[in-house]
Amino acid sequence: MIKNYVFGVFAAASLCLSTSSAFAIGPAGMAAPSKLRPLNIVAQKPTLAPFAFVKFCVANASDCADAHGDASVSLTSGLMRQLRQVNAQVNRSIEPQYDNDGDDEWQADVAAGDCEDFALTKRRRLIELGWSPNALRMAIAYTPNNNGHAVLVVSTSKGDLVLDNRSNSIRNWRDTDLRWVMIQSSVNPLYWNQI
């Protein structure tokens, strides 16, 4: 009898534990994982910066200088409008052109370039408009097609927003289709962290 009771309690506990995780998220069950992800990217342990970024910094020291400024911007409707304008203008102004294999070169203010060139140009334009450099971070991710991709992440009071050359829409990092790999530090642009 006790054996059956213990087995019954164990079975009931197992059933509760196996179903509780689905109900813990809400009525949609596991269909809503992004609601649990934070609005801001959580940087993990330090990692090496992409080599092409290091070369970019050697040639463009002012873009990689240790800047002092807020790590997050208090987002207003006017600043959001500025973000949208810069994102759309840069997306229109640069002709998409991939680097040759093994010859990855990061540049800003170019007529033709690939994803990191778009992101660096957007960062430079926003800094010229008075945005804090510490709130503007380069990030590396993978697209759904498993292609390496670089974007600009803007840390704001409304979360980390992504400026991507694949779209004029600006989205929170957790609402993109990207698998995140690494991001620049908000303390020093030469340092990078895993995501």
Description:
A hairpin with a 7-residue loop joins strand 8 (179-184) and strand 9. Mean pLDDT is 84; it is low at 1-33. Helices cover 33% and strands 19% of the residues. The protein is α+β, with helices and mostly antiparallel strands and 195 residues long. The chain has a seven-stranded antiparallel β-sheet with strand order 1-9-8-4-5-6-7, with helices on one face. Strands 2-3 form a two-stranded parallel ribbon. The radius of gyration is 21 Å and the shape is globular. Helix 3 (77-93) crosses helix 4. It has two domains: 1-36; 37-194, C8orf32 fold (Roll), CATH 3.10.620. It has helices spanning 2-25, 51-59, 77-93, 115-128, and strands spanning 46-47, 95-96, 112-113, 136-142, 148-156, 159-163, 171-172, 179-184, 192-194. It is built from four helices and nine strands; from the N terminus they run αβααββαββββββ. Keywords: Signal. This is Transglutaminase-like cysteine proteinase. It comes from Neorhizobium lilium. InterPro entries: Transglutaminase-like_Cys_pept. Residues 1-24 form the signal peptide.
List the helices and strands and how they pair.
Layout: H1 2-25, E1 46-47, H2 51-59, H3 77-93, E2 95-96, E3 112-113, H4 115-128, E4 136-142, E5 148-156, E6 159-163, E7 171-172, E8 179-184, E9 192-194
Parallel strand pairs: 2-3
Antiparallel strand pairs: 1-9, 4-5, 4-8, 5-6, 6-7, 8-9
Helix pairs in contact: 3-4
Organism: Neorhizobium lilium
Signal peptide: 1-24
InterPro entries: Transglutaminase-like_Cys_pept (IPR010319)
